Protein: ABC transporter ATP-binding protein
Amino acid sequence: MISFRNVRKSFGPKDVLKDVSFDVEDGEVFFIIGQSGVGKSVLIKHLVGLLYPDGGEIWLDGEEVSRFDEARMYPVRMKCAMVFQHSTLFDSMTCAENVALPLRKHKGLRPKEALAEARRRLELVHMREFGDRFPPELGDGMRKRVAIARALTLDPRYVLFDEPTTSLDPVSARRVDKLIRELSDTLGVTSIVVSHDLVSIFTIADRIVMLYQGLVRLLGDRAAFQGSPDPVVQQFITGSAEGPIE
Ligand SMILES: Nc1ncnc2c1ncn2[C@@H]1O[C@H](COP(=O)(O)OP(=O)(O)OP(=O)(O)O)[C@@H](O)[C@H]1O
Structure:
């Protein structure tokens, strides 16, 4: 389980996170939503020690990771994989070689074993037949799925997705949604998804937290958001230009 407890973070005079608290339960698909610049990426970077809070605590599986030094962060990063918005695959390696890389580096598998295991991992994301292709030969959606396969190589308990469907065509975006849902349902992975994509949110989220002006505006399931009388929540989820959001 992940707990953010009264987390505060400022950059110079800018108070990005003022007092943010919520828990993410094991196995759920948990979305973090809110306007551009509200601090969604800043928040998830705290989980893996890419940022440290100015105040408050972050707990992961019973340990306060917000006080960990680099050495103690290492196993945390193995447990929490990140899938960045732009797939960071090596263009000069095949998809299978890309997925095999962390298996060789962190699990010590020999090249042949790592490649065989990489092909099994590609199957999880329905990309097995593309193992010998190079990333530039594939579309964005397929590259994203390979990046997800690579993120899964070290059997993380948590996968942090930063805007996984942004810049994908609608069909590829829905395939990525389906995959995120499957990872929770079949592997028990906990997914934390930063997203603006209303279709994803209302199709696959178990729970959603909305950040607004440095605070949690609403935390709840899809029905709680759809039925919320809060005009800020309603404006965000309907994507309306008119309303209280500045
Ligand atoms: N390392 C940093 N140094 C200074 N300011 C930063 C740093 N990282 C983030 N910020 C600022 O913190 C604020 C929140 O950024 P963040 O990237 O978390 O927004 P976001 O909610 O993820 O937005 P988007 O949806 O556009 O990705 C922004 O104003 C950003 O400029």
Q: What stands out?
A: The mean pLDDT is 93. The CA atoms of residues 121 and 136 lie 20 Å apart.
